[in-house]
Design goal:
There is one protein chain. The chain has one domain. Helices cover 53% and strands 16% of the residues. The protein contains six helices and five strands. Helix 1 runs parallel beside helix 3 and helix 2 runs antiparallel to helix 3. The protein starts with a helix and ends with a strand.
């Protein structure tokens, strides 16, 4: 009876450990981790989800078709290997767990001449195969990140840029700061989103530093310390929308709504992500970089 109780506890803790390891392996998130941090301007509309700008049926159908084609292509290339590994691991896990439970219930361990010997062998074999399986997944993810993220991902993103456009009806008013070009700004906003996400995937914190405020940089650096493993984020569609641009003292404050379709590490399906990014720049220094002052999640 005592041996059976010990076996139950061993199974319980082994299962918890397996889930923890699988979570650490698969938990790769985009820059910012889906959190709000940094400074936010005193702008009431930015705390609510802005209304969708009117779009034509043809444009909506074209956008949906592009996202569907990109998703089908990615699933066709990546799903079979993942399915093979998952099926193999599930089969072995089921066999090992079944054997362990059978040994526990029917006293198979006593037949080997030692207390719980069969249990220990099954647990040891299960842990070995589990670590081997998880290590293979991690190595595959790390290998795909820098390679695909370097050439293939940027190539796919570059091909997609030509099919993207900003919102047809701008949400900002006519009173823009002097010399502020909204079209040029939105082009730069799209480019900086891609660059920062690429740098985050590589955990290139030094590159992120030059485009962020101290507060934002400290949070990104903290997240990189907690999750130092490089990842892979595919940006399928990016639509930046200028929500507001105004002067505050010597600074120009600009708020951008990013409506992004992306696919993260380990995901087989793409998802939509909507965030408000707040930028600032010295009014008298147009040659300077725009600085990311804060990231704000949209309340739904």
């Amino acid at each position: 009876m005592n041996r059976r109780l010990v076996s139950v506890f061993i199974i319980f803790f082994m299962t918890l450990g397996a889930f923890a390891l699988m979570h650490d392996t698969a938990d790769a998130r985009k820059m910012g981790g889906g959190k709000s941090f940094g400074s936010k301007p005193s702008y009431q509309r930015s705390t609510q989800q802005p209304a969708q700008s009117p779009t034509s049926p043809a444009r909506t159908q074209n956008t949906n078709e592009q996202a569907r084609q990109g998703q089908q292509a990615q699933q066709g290339a990546a799903a079979p290997p993942m399915g093979a590994r998952s099926g193999f691991g599930g089969m072995l896990g089921g066999m090992l767990m079944g054997g362990l439970i059978g040994s526990m219930l029917f006293g198979g361990g006593a037949g080997l001449g030692g207390p719980g010997m069969l249990d220990m062998l099954l647990i040891g074999g299960g842990l070995f195969l589990l670590f081997r399986f998880l290590r293979a997944r991690r190595m595959a993810a790390e290998g795909a990140g820098p390679q695909a993220g370097g050439a293939q991902t940027h190539e796919r993103a570059a091909n997609a840029w030509g099919n993207l456009s900003t919102a047809s009806e701008p949400a900002y008013g006519p009173d823009l700061p002097a010399g502020f070009d909204p079209d040029e700004f939105l082009q730069g906003a799209k480019a900086i989103y891609v660059r920062l996400q690429s740098s985050w995937d590589k955990r290139d914190i030094d590159d992120i530093r030059q485009f962020t405020s101290d507060e934002v940089y400290e949070e990104i650096a903290r997240q990189a310390t907690e999750d130092p493993t490089p990842g892979k984020t595919e940006l399928l569609l990016i639509t930046p929308q200028l929500i507001e641009a105004r002067e505050v003292g010597q600074q120009i404050i600009a708020t951008v709504l990013y409506d992004v379709m992306l696919r993260e590490d380990g995901d087989t399906h793409s998802r939509q992500d909507r965030e408000l990014w707040h930028f600032s720049r010295d009014r008298d220094r147009p040659e300077d970089f725009w600085v990311l002052e804060g990231i704000q999640q949209i309340e739904r």
